[in-house]
């Protein structure tokens, strides 16, 4: 079985550094982490574009429910996501709408607070911690499970156990976790799709094709 670090190196050699998450500010990234739930990034990009130039906590709070829902409609489940954005903004306001204030809070405390926000689960919370606040937490998503299971790892089903699998196998490095997760996303879109494209896959020599 390929060591986990070798898996990352193979993907990076194939796709290059991914420069993920695509956002102009930490707040845009955090909003995107909520909007991307149950959809793809193309739809999120459309929703974020419709929020511009009002993509700030103050301006979103000032919107009516109807206006916010219409702005984020391309992301799908727009009524539910509007309420989740508002719940997140309430939490963000408790920290003064200040990313610098969040930087002073310990990772475990922030994670627990985020998980108490309605509509924010482990994947969303960890995405915010990793990509907006630069904390070394490994994000697990459906792509991670798909790839790891197909190539033959005995990969845990539970989120916290899957996360520990990577964090115990890798150096505790925010930049590494950032790019590794992004490599999984890229590979799942290029080759390890629901209907896989095995020809040309950089992991094909080691893959057990557990499809």
From TrEMBL:
InterPro entries found in the cross-reference section: DNA_glycosylase, HhH-GPD_domain, HhH_base_excis_C
CDD domains, alphabetized: ENDO3c
Record-linked Gene3D superfamilies: Helix-hairpin-Helix base-excision DNA repair enzymes (C-terminal), Hypothetical protein, domain 2
PANTHER family tied to this protein: A/G-SPECIFIC ADENINE GLYCOSYLASE/ENDONUCLEASE III (PTHR10359), DNA REPAIR GLYCOSYLASE MJ1434-RELATED (PTHR10359:SF19)
Record carries keyword Iron-sulfur: yes
A GO BP entry: base-excision repair
Regions annotated as coiled coil: none
UniProt organism field: Bacillus selenitireducens (strain ATCC 700615 / DSM 15326 / MLS10)
Name of the protein in its database record: HhH-GPD family protein
Keyword Metal-binding attributed: yes
Pfam families from the UniProt entry: HhH-GPD
SMART domains according to UniProt: ENDO3c
Record-annotated HhH-GPD domain positions: 35-190
An example molecular function term from Gene Ontology annotations: 4 iron, 4 sulfur cluster binding
Domain of life the protein comes from: Bacteria
